[in-house]
Amino acid sequence: MIRTNNLTKIYRTEEVETTALGSVNIEINEGEFVSIMGPSGCGKSTLMNILGLLDNPSGGEYHFIGTEVSKFTERQRAHMRKENIGFVFQSFNLIDELTIYENVELPLLYLKTPSSERKQMVEKVLEHMQIMHRRNHFPQQLSGGQQQRVAVARALVANPKIILADEPTGNLDSSHGDEVMKMLTDLNEAGTTIVMVTHSPTYAEYGNRVIHLFDGQVVTENYKEKFHV
Amino acid sequence: MLKNTIKIFFRNLIKHPGNSLSNILGLSVGITTCILILLFVQYEFNWNTDNEKYDRIYRLQSMSDTKGAWQVDTQTGFALASEVKDKFPEIEDAAVLGEIWGEYLSSSEEKTFNEGSGYYADKNAFKIFSFNFVQGNINDALSEPYCVVITETMAKKYFPNENAYGKNLKATKNKILKVTGIIKDFPVNSDFRPDYLVSMKTLFEVTEWKDFYKLENITASIYRTFVTLKPNILKDEMNDKLKNFLDNYVSNNQKTCYLKPLSEIHLTAGEHKDAEFALYATASLAFFILILSCINFINLSTASSNLRKKEIGVRKVVGASRKTLFLQFLSESFAITFISMVLALLFAELILPYFNTIVQRQLPFNFFMNTQFILLMAAIFVVAGVLSGIYPAAYLSSFRPAEIIKSGVFNPVKNKKGFLRKSLVGFQFFVSLLLIITTIYVIKQVSLMNNKDLGFDKKNLVIVKVFGEKSDGNFSALKNELVKNNNIIDASLSSTAPFISNWGREINWEGSTASEKMNIMYNNIGYDFIDTYKMEIVKGRNFSREFSTDDKACLINETAWKQLGWDDPIGRKLDSSKYTVVGVVKDFHQFSVHSLIPPFYLTLNPEKLADNGLYSIRIKPENAEETIKYVRAQFKSFFPNAIIEASIYESILDVGTRDLWTIVEKLFSIFTVIAILIAANGLFGLVSFSTQRRTKEIGIRKVLGANSGKLYWMMSSEIVVIFVLAAVLAIPSGYYQSQMIPGAYKYQLQFIDYFLSVGLMLITALAATTYHTTKAVYTNPVKSLRYE
């Protein structure tokens, strides 16, 4: 599903050149649950942004679902993104001015899903996430855990091929964190590919593979069995 | 999607009320100003448009070269209308109109009024101007002598409870005029706005000069000639054909005949286009205020983008393309423009009565009846929407989603250190400065016009007109009675008076060739005219009773002296040696102070004053009302059967151009203050956002030892630099603009004017920035760092 070949990302200012990613080669198959770990500033989020088509790499190749996308324009990336990728963020990133229902509905609007179908899809995912009763509330009226459930619902509503979760438990207490991890595991078991960035070795264990980054390079890749050894 | 966009638009409006109110009110104040000013400008530019053939109607007038100085004559000889109609197939219709001055009409003794605007005319006038007949037949209403067509207002005035049609009106010299037609009143903004028309055949019966219709008098300056051109005939081509037309009738003719469009008559009455310029300047004031409001909107929208960053990021992440977001934000700008526009229309309607008092007009606000206005509103909506929306939409939609989502950092794709925002602030400074300079110029120019030395003393003069009875011309007995009153200083009789009426003619002079003629203004005056008006004799002497030959003497003004080119004018002859120059009068204004002073000569010709003379009386300022009563009483005792009209000279002095300039002065003074407040409001908001952004920087600098002065400079230096650049551009632009204003006598901007403009704007700019800067500078650094 995902294959990168010597993927690099260099940030340039007038005087300084910073290499955020240097020759990253990874491959993620459909149905996998991959955790990415590493210290602050190692390039985890940069890698997630590129994998999520939010940013272009400076060099190398990125094959997403069989298509080389590293040179895609913003418009092409937006198109590819909305049809295939769901995002979950540490800070939930719900739009405060929209209700829970409207937040979840948003990806379907950009996909131009017909109204009746949209309603069915949103209600289904809200029920699945057990937040249907909160549909008309605004994000600030919900607890952190509930907000993250809404964020997961929004990521899922368009049935994406992959979910990218950037520290999804970072702003949650342990009980809500466990709840979110349980949700992600259930989704993975139902067939959704998941890539998650986390600082927590415990939550990283939920994945069947852990990629360690350091200074923009992949240093180790541990498969679950190996990781437990 | 549209529903979602609308929802989020309104929720954002409500969520950030201060920001929304600032944006909407800022824009609506700008649009309100624009609406009001443009209503006034539209009104002024739409004089005479109620005439169906408006764009094909022309006044036929002439121009003559008097020793290098072109003079325009808007009056013609009687025969010109019929001659041009016969000779040029391009001319559809031609009408001659004879103005009737100071006519008193009456239906009964108590219903006697002095009617201002009357013309001798025939049915050709109906073919040119749009008359709406309520009663009477358009074809024969003016076909017989002693017929009169009157307006509905006049009909009600003279015959309040009966039908005026078919009734008689008594006119001066015992003329009895039969009402053969009643027409609707002409709109107020019509230059040709007769209250009544008397049949042209009446003129043939009553005029004392029986040769007026002869071809040889075709160049006389007595009647108004109007024509309509057939459709698609070009004015310039027609003017080429008319150029030498008068040569066919008069030997040694120096007049060039040409067409002046009806559309230009109102604003370029004396061929000087200062009124038109003043209106264009006023229209640009409206435009600039609109631009300032739009720039405010742009600056506030982009500066407050912080409030929308998460939404933009999320929308991009879930699949919104840049184009989708661009359209979303553009539609939001249009929605705000729409709301502002609705508010502006409401404000304009509420303010219009007060605005009408300022502009001394009755501007109508029948929005749905005014096609031009609807188009204008549509244009303002599009211009304001696009101007306000394009950049913020492009700016907001350009954020990189990855960065906003992760770090909340703004990093629009193309924002080179806020260059555009700085340029916009600079442009606001530039426009505001230019407006202040222009306002100072207009105030000084109006003051110059009001206080310019007219060459005589306009104060404490009373003008008396006597209708219906002839004076004896020498005026001495009446004058003796008048000056018995201690409050009356002097009195005199003359044919015309400056700014009230004027006579012009062509004359030759001692030393001129047979073909040389000079177009000159003239006046017949009594012995005391120069003293009564406090005019100054700069060479030679005034008329005097001691010289029995003074009935063959004349005075000339300085301009005539200069144009005639005589070293010493005293003793030289004028007008086929009829007059000998005995003195030179200091130049005095006869027309608007914006017009050049024409060459002038004054003759002593009391017998010509016997009919329609003007009495000028200089009084003391004390007890003026009592003095005027005394004057009236004395005149009534000398002319028991006459109608006496006495008015303060200053009240009838040059109302046209000066009036418009005074309105423009008021508009500039009021709306420039509004413009500056709009700019200051924008700056205030902008500084508020920029200080928020720099809170952390200020905190760190304070911790490291920066003092308040340095921090103030750090926060204000950018504004000051932008201001200086704007001032460097605005000062020469203001100077250039003041030089472009047409007119003969113009105020020259002084250093102090520029200094005042720059100082005023700088103080305003610093005042707008000080509040937030001070707040930022004096905030405890611990607090600001924690905040960050």
Give a description of the structure.
The complex is a heterodimer of chains A (229) and B (788). Chain A is 36% helix and 27% strand. By secondary structure, chain A is an alpha/beta fold. Chain A has a six-stranded mixed beta sheet with strand order 7-8-9-4-10-11, with helices on both faces. Chain B is elongated and about 100 Å long. By secondary structure, chain B is α+β, with helices and mostly antiparallel strands. In chain B, helix 9 (274-303) packs antiparallel against helix 14 and helix 19 runs parallel beside helix 22. In chain B, a hairpin with a 3-residue loop joins strand 9 (168-171) and strand 10. The chains are: A alpha/beta (229), B alpha+beta (788).
Summarize the structure.
The complex is a heterodimer of chains A (229) and B (788). Chain A has 229 residues and is of the alpha/beta class.
- Helices of chain A, by number, come to 8
Helix fraction of chain A, binned, reads: 25-40%
User: How much strand of chain B?
Assistant: 15-25%
Radius of gyration of chain A: 18 Å
- The coarse silhouette of chain B is elongated
Label the structural class of chain B. alpha+beta
The most extensive interface, with participating residues per chain, is: A-B, 30 and 26 residues
Amount of helix of chain B? 40-55%
What class would the helix/strand composition of chain A place it in? alpha/beta
Tell me the number of strands of chain B.
24
Helix and strand sequence of chain A: EEEEHEEHEHHHEHEHEEH
| Count of alpha/pi helices of chain B | 23
Rg for CA atoms of chain B: 34 Å
Q: pLDDT below 50 for ≥5 consecutive residues: which ranges of chain A?
A: none
The amount of beta strand of chain A, in percent, is 25-35%
Task: Provide the descriptors you would attach to this structure in a database record.
heterodimer; A: 229 residues; alpha/beta; five-stranded antiparallel β-sheet; 36% helix; 27% strand; globular; B: 788 residues; alpha+beta; eleven-stranded mixed β-sheet; 23 helices; 24 strands; 18% strand
